[in-house]
Amino acid sequence: MGTRVQGPGAVVLALAAVVAIVLGGVPGTAWVAVPRAGAQPSGGPTTTATSTPGGTGGSGGGGAAGAGSADAELAIIMDASSSMLEPDEGGTRLDVAKRASTELVESLPDTARVGMLAYGTQESDAPENHERGCADIRELAPVGAVDKDRLRGEIEGLQARGYTPIGNSLRAAADMLSPDASERSIVLVSDGIDTCTPPPPCEVAAELADEGVGLAVHVVGFRADEATRAELECIANTTGGSYRQADDAAALSESLQFLAQRAIVEYETTGTEFQFADTADEALYVGQGLYRTTVQTVSELNTAAVPEKFLRVAVPEGHRAYVAVTAVPRIDLTDTGGGEGINVRLTSTNESHHTCTKDVASSQTSGGGWEPPESTVLAFAGQEPGDECDGTQFLVAAQFNTAGLGAAEEFEVEMSVQFEPMPGNEVGTWPEGHPGSAPDAAPVEISSPQPVAGGNSFANAAEITEGSFSDAIVPGEFRYYRVPVEWGQRPVVTLKTGPSVRETNDTLYGAIYGPVRQQLGSEYISYRQEGEEMTVASDRPVNFNNRNANVGGERVSIAGEHYLAVSMSVFGNDVLGVEQPFEFAVRMDGEPGEGPDWEPVNEPGPTPSSSPIGTDAAPGGEANDDNDDDNPSVVASAEEDSSLPGWALPAGIGVILLILAGLGLWFFSRGKQR
């Protein structure tokens, strides 16, 4: 099962793929090992890969994508035994291995923690030299932050001379790894069997496996014969690692494109930690800003059986609240649908009076590189002057259901809470709402695009302006960008991609979101042999009075930072970790106009509280339990809950002032008498 690439390219590809397994979780530039199952590079043979069911490798579509963490450690064992002096294309087998290893070092992410050792470099393989030769194991670089210059120099200086002490080398490599590392991995490259047993290498592998979870040995067999392959596969299988066979030198050029395979950079939630309450009585207040949590979903076809989770919001008088919940489904790169999906339903109820309104919003989002995580946005107005509905008494109920989309499990959730102040009579001087029938926007010309690295969430979106840009993405990934949009402007984005780097049917998806994360427009393009282009735009210019035009107008009624999200589809068992370049250009149609100055707060919100939280609460800090005097809603609540009559507080203050005045006169008169 899998592919077999031959020759130096095979070694490069096999090394890259195996090392990808253990570096798959390094944020930002991690690797992912996902071979092209059932397919062959054009014009060349293939690389065989095997792994145990419980191992970290695999030949399916997912491999170890997203596994591991930034403190994962890797030790690479190089074979410099005398058999590596055998002639090969371009020199010897060692020359091929040197070139492959140097390519590997060049491709390592800067965040990788990697070390290297080699055996057979100093002692000959003469029979009388057996004891010294089997101890000939030299550390080329200790495990730590990757030092590419040192590794390149050490690799270049390798000379093949001696024995093949695989078992002893495995022990030495294990000793290089920190016991505190989240993942410990060894990559072994060898062209022959162990010539120094005992200890038998498979028994050593079993010892290492018994040391605990997190230590796996991945093996590359270079021109390995049947006996060698059996021994090397035993090492990999015993530790839950992967074995990869590399043969002759026919497909180096086809292999090099896969050296940059990396894991997807997953959505990163941002904000103050909070928890939904299981009952309304236990619900805490949240304030303005960003929050994050995890939720346990259910899988119920009967939506009435989906349990509700609760929180509270105190909407300041004269404001409108927006609660945007972004559920982040798990991504399964082995699933052509991309993995799990989730339905989110939000309901707000004002509990202060039975005549107060009840608002409902719901949406469905699915993960895995088809569409970026969708936000369910609930909007509701606070207390107006003379209104009997108390704005501090809003209860928000949330339901999370995976029925028909996947199994019930725990998901990460990001939430944005915003309070928009309602303007006064100046609303009448602003342009009327647009009905949303704007003609299709003309494509934006892409000219001299500037490189930009998109963020991995709304909060981490890369800042851009009007202009042309370039980026790259791998299947299952999301890229986010933020761009300012003025009143009266209509955001237009054109995205363009070249032929599929993976040489398969790929799909690129693009969407524009408003400042409170409501989707304004979306498009997708499918491509393979030739590049394609698409243009996405809102259906009207951004105008405050759009909210009064029709139901769809509310989404396009807030100016400020808008978001562009790009994602790439996942299809079957094709190789996944290859970056697909794309270009895009941004243009604002329309002249800037008039409207309020308010923009959402994209900072961590105040700590959840049992008391209402005002808009002046410090972002990311304590709420108002210790600062109630600064929060009018809390002071009002304290007055209402007091057992004293309403006149008691001002009367008490008056008495205190009279006493202070009397003391002042007494002090002054004493001073004059002296």
From TrEMBL:
UniProt domain VWFA: residue ranges: 73-259
UniProt KW keywords: Membrane, Transmembrane, Transmembrane helix
Region Disordered, annotated ranges: 37-66, 587-642
Compositional bias (Low complexity): 37-53
Bilayer-crossing regions: 647-668
Compositional bias of kind Gly residues: 54-66
PROSITE patterns named among the record's database cross-references: VWFA
Protein's name according to its UniProt entry: VWA domain-containing protein
InterPro entries: CLCR, VWF_A, vWFA_dom_sf
